[in-house]
Write the structure tokens for this entry.
Amino acid sequence: MGEEKVVEKTTKNNKKFKKFKPRKKTGEIECNLIESLQQRYSDISVDNIKSFKDLPLSVKTLRGLKDGKYFVPTEIQKQSIGFALQGKDILGAAKTGSGKTLAFLVPILEHLFCQKWTRLDGVGALIISPTRELAYQIFETLRKVGVHHDFSAGLIIGGQNLKFERKRMDQCNIMICTPGRLLQHMDENPLFNCSNMQILVLDEADRCLDLGFEAAMNSIIENLPPKRQTLLFSATQTKSVRDLARLSLSDPTYVAPHEQSEWSTPVSLQQNYVICEVHEKISILWSFIKNHLKQKSIVFMASCKQVKYVYEIFCKLRPGISLLALYGSLHQERREQIYKEFCRKSNVVLFATDLASRGLDFPLVNWVIQVDCPEDGNTYIHRVGRTARGLQGKGEGLLMLLPSEEEAMLLELKSKKIPINKIHIDPSKIMSPQRKMESFLAEFSELKQTAQRAFVSYAKSVFLMKNKNIFNIYALDTNAFAKSLGLVVPPRIRFLQKIKKNIEAQKQKNRSEDDVSDVSEESVNKSKKTRDDSDDDNDDSYQNESQTEGDGGFKFDISDDDGEDILTVKRRNHNVIDEVDEQPIDMEERPVKKKKSLTKAAIVKKLLNKKIVANTKVVFNEEGEALLNEKRDLRSELAKEYENEDKGGIDIEKAKLVLREEDRFDKERFREKIRLKHKEEKRKLKQSKKEEAEKDDFGSESESDGPDMSWLPDPDKVYGERKSDNDESPQNSSFEGNDRSSEDEDDNASEENIHRPLKRKLSVSKGIQQKSVKKMKKLRAGVKDLSASLSVSEAEKLAMQLLQSRK
Ligand code: ADP
Ligand code: MG
């Protein structure tokens, strides 16, 4: 092997190794060998090829094939390798698993060998694959069969270290890439140079050339040297003139060994379909898995979100078999792990999107279950082709079809020469995991969200399908479907409601245009009724719509017109950074309109523009007349004047003046308020004092408390009005004093006056007043005692004496 390396280098770089004569000799031998091989190319006869040795192949390639246990070439290999060696462009079409990979790898190795290609010569061959996994698989096969050659191979796929790829790019002789990543290098990497490229291969060519990769592929083709050999391979080969023109194929050779076959799928593949309702799919799948615990199966679903959800919930339900999930939105490392794990394991179920439908050669897959109907016959062929691969591979396929899909899909499958049998599933054998799923969703809110997304995602995928004869979103019982996913409340399908509204509007418009000439009373009523009915439907789930509208032709006609943009974009167009993702376009990821944040300034602006006056409170009197704003009245004249001025902007000086004036006005108002309050308090105090004084002067108001002494003379009159030495007149003085002081004293003092008990005040009175009262009482008591012992005439006499003595 080491010697061979030297030989290759010496032949290519003569100047450098001129002095090594023996090597030159070896190089000559090599040249002779190549010449003799090339001479045999024109004599290749397919019928005479029994083994790879019968083909004019280099020893290195033959050794590589032998190491890989490839002895007998398959039909596509027999037929295409010869033409490819002759340098012809090839359109290769052969069934899934028929060995197309070697059909293009062997000619690449041979071509570069015969060209004495070295690492220094750069890119000699470019292989483009639609998915990363397939690119990886081709790379691995190349490593196996090309092990004895000294070519370097590079895997250029998304999700890898770009810098690392960049550095190694110039050393690659055979490059295996996905379209997006290749274009990225073409655009950004100065080390990328494919001007010497000899062979271009498109594996799964029809997929590479379809809408999803259109833009990327056009750019790639533009950058490639026009003088090259082009090989296209697929189980469902494109014959489109447009595609061939894009690749500027020169008189390609169409190699299709199975074209005359009765069936387009492998003979050893047993294919079945079952008719079921959309809500039965999960139960059927669950029951299938539980009954095939010792098998290896792939389950295809329409979208990433469905795959994610079913995988996660089935993991929780613990079916007793390994579960894996492969879909585009996973991280690249995870994708690689899952791919390798599924290759390695034997009792396992892989849930996947169409990402895994093309080209992947998982060993010994027993079953392919298509839970959701594939978009067309070709997709069906690729999906089901993951089983029954290679020379002796066997396998089975199960397709679940809705009653609405059955007729059109079976026609499609028939047109593609696919043999498929209808089978019935014993309903008693179906186990429904719905209740358990419901309880899991109740427990795990994230899982519930995943379920909701899966639900909407399926509805979208059905809606986006091109073939409306197969896919009818209006025929789906979405409520039942949601329940089957464990969702108690079916999520709203907003995009459908919107579309329905548009349809209604369009319908209405068309109708009014038709009826514009003769609008009878009856027709008006009728259309009104229809509109009313549909308005009601709007409030319900869209399922009701399908029930009311049935299968009437209008909805597809209109939706095709209205939804042209949505309906035609089957896949998103891959750009440089985005890598392969075979999911139908995800409408949830549409750019959301940025919401403007609502600022106070914006609100004010809006109000001013609309001339809206902010809320005002109007108070009415009992007669219903509006009263002026009280608060507005409590303002200084200057403020009122300022407010009424209709000037724009603010006059700072005036505003200052107004504020000062307002301040003065407020202070005055409050002073007045306090003064009135005090006045009222004093009035009350006076009143209460008066009442108390009246009580104390004349004792108890109740006359029954003691003997009636009213007949006795007034002591003041008996002793005369006494004037105090210390100017304190009894009773009156205290009252007068209180009166006078209350005028000047502060609030506390007056408060004390108010709360001090009057009796106590009176008891504090001293001097003559108290003494005279005592004396009087004594006198009264003496008179009382005397009067008790005297007769009436004696008492009268005594009284007269007393009166006379006073005089
Ligand atoms: P296709 O691309 O047509 O779907 P592949 O190239 O992936 O098929 O090959 C399918 C399987 O057949 C692979 O496992 C491969 O190793 C095997 N295979 C291919 N050619 C031969 C051969 N000549 N002899 C034995 N096995 C082969
Ligand atoms: Mg293939």
